[in-house]
Amino acid sequence: MTHTRNTAASPADPNRSDTPRATRSSPADERAERALSEPMTVRQLPDRRYVVDTDGGTYVVALDAGRCTCPDHAIRGARCKHLRRVALSVTAGVVPAPDERVGACAVCGTATFVPADEGRSYLCDAHAFDPGTVVSDRETGDRLVVTAVTTERADEYRTDDGRPLVDYASNAAYGAHEPAVEAVYVSSLRPDFAPRDARTYAFPASRLTAPET
């Protein structure tokens, strides 16, 4: 049996079809690489476009329209590195999407992305609740299950008797600007009906807290 593992390799024949050849990156690949590696600062404008500052200049990108003011796009019609960088920044959560703006969490004031055309009340990830989350009432210690997180402010939300949520004395210590969170008491739940069949109550968001794990 012949073993070739120690046989010296023969020089590659450049005319053979299976000989590896050096490949050049396409313009699109180069733009993608530069979008990732080059220093750029992306900022959103009030009209939902973006300013991109680079060492070579400052350009304006309309992401949803796929346009940029740089020569690469304006002259060649290419999906330039600036368009790509803005798209990457939006995907990474560095800047808002075109239909979003920077807002403030109604509980802690932390910057968060909210719908651009709505003046509602929103929560950051640290203070938001998912439906089904078990929470505690800071005032009574009772346990509840969140059924919905609204975007209505506590001074806008009306209870079944027509009163604004902030009018209740037990809510005086919580912000009128906070969104109302709807929940049902765990003690009211029975095996023979679903949570939606239990009576729903509303609370300013910061009155509820998720139990520590």
UniProtKB/TrEMBL annotation:
This is SWIM-type domain-containing protein. The lineage of its organism: Archaea, Methanobacteriati, Methanobacteriota, Stenosarchaea group, Halobacteria. GO terms for molecular function: zinc ion binding. Residues 1-36 are annotated as: Disordered. It comes from the Archaea. Residues 59-91 form the SWIM-type domain. Keywords: Metal-binding, Zinc, Zinc-finger. It comes from Halorubrum tropicale. InterPro entries: Znf_SWIM (IPR007527). The keyword Metal-binding applies. Residues 15-36 have a biased composition (Basic and acidic residues). PROSITE patterns: ZF_SWIM.
